[in-house]
Amino acid sequence: MENIKQLLSERESTHGDFECASMDFDLLHDVIYDSSVSLSSPQKYALTMIMVKITRILNGDPSEQDHWKDIAGYALLGGDLKNEGENEGDKS
């Protein structure tokens, strides 16, 4: 149990206070899921994970590079852009 408490304490420095972050996440969640825009499952999932990362940036360490890299990765996945440009050289 002590290891878990230590881990949570360490994560709070980069991820922020869990309770405060959960309130911010709720607000972001409502904006996306109450939208009238029809989203695919991968888009919803990617946006959810991006919301998690935004919440961590706002409540934790905004200089934590992993948060920003993860947002970029989820944006590529949600926008189905992960393979875009791979065949650019094949175009004539």
UniProtKB/TrEMBL annotation:
Residues 8-81 form the DUF6378 domain. InterPro entries: DUF6378 (IPR045958). This is DUF6378 domain-containing protein. It comes from Testudinibacter aquarius.
